[in-house]
Amino acid sequence: MMRNPRPISPAEYPLLADFLYHAIFIPPGTEPAPREVIEKPEIAVYIDGFGSQKGDTGVLSVQENKIVGAAWTRIIPAFGRIDDETPELAISVLPEYRGQGTGTELLKALFEKLSEQGYRQTSLSVQKENPALRLYQRMGYKTVRENDEDYIMVRSLKEEMRGTNDGMCAKAAAVQTSLPVIAAR
After folding, report:
1. Total-model pTM
2. Among 19, 24, 160, 162, which is disulfide-ready with 115 (CB 3.0 to 4.6 Å)?
3. Could you tell me the domains of the chain?
4. Tens-digit pLDDT profile for residues 111-123
């Protein structure tokens, strides 16, 4: 299957709202939150005004002429914030395209872009029970803090700065993002 991660264009920024909603982890047996949940300030910060500030970087995955995934970063006061120099990751792949390596390819492309922009690391927040945790670990994220529900993780971008991605995994498990469970909070 042909995948083609590419940078997001300004005309595509509005698509991030749909991907943000799909990014919200829903534990098994839990009802999905209403779509309006992405309007809550602690969630909306991931997309409001995207493209207008330092750290706003994104890539899209296109398969069969359809945008099926997005990964983006922002330097924002959000769940996975580390400092004023570390962009926080959000990633989402449409459910029917998960488990096919799309998340891995999105992350590789995003890491490369961030490295080109001079960033040294990226961070995220992920629920401990989220299956995407395994993807993040395979892609080099390390836990730096945790609470009862979430891990805060950081990944160095040094490999990309050296121009090598040799140590990266080629296949991803199902991708659900780093956004916390909203309905449960």
Report:
1. 0.86
2. 160
3. 6-161 (3.40.630.30)
4. 999 999 999 999 9
Task: Output the pLDDT for position 100.
Answer: 94
Distance of CA 59 to the CA centre of its chain: 10
Residues comprising the chain, all counted: 185
**CA-CA-CA-CA dihedral for 45, 47, 51, 55, to nearest 10:** 50
Give which of 118, 96, 122 is closest to 175, Cα–Cα. Answer: 96
Averaged pLDDT of the chain? 88
Closest among 29, 46, 107, 96 to 66, alpha carbons compared: 96
| DSSP H stretches of helix in 46-183 | 102-116, 132-138, 158-161
Cβ atoms < 10 Å from Cβ of 118: 9
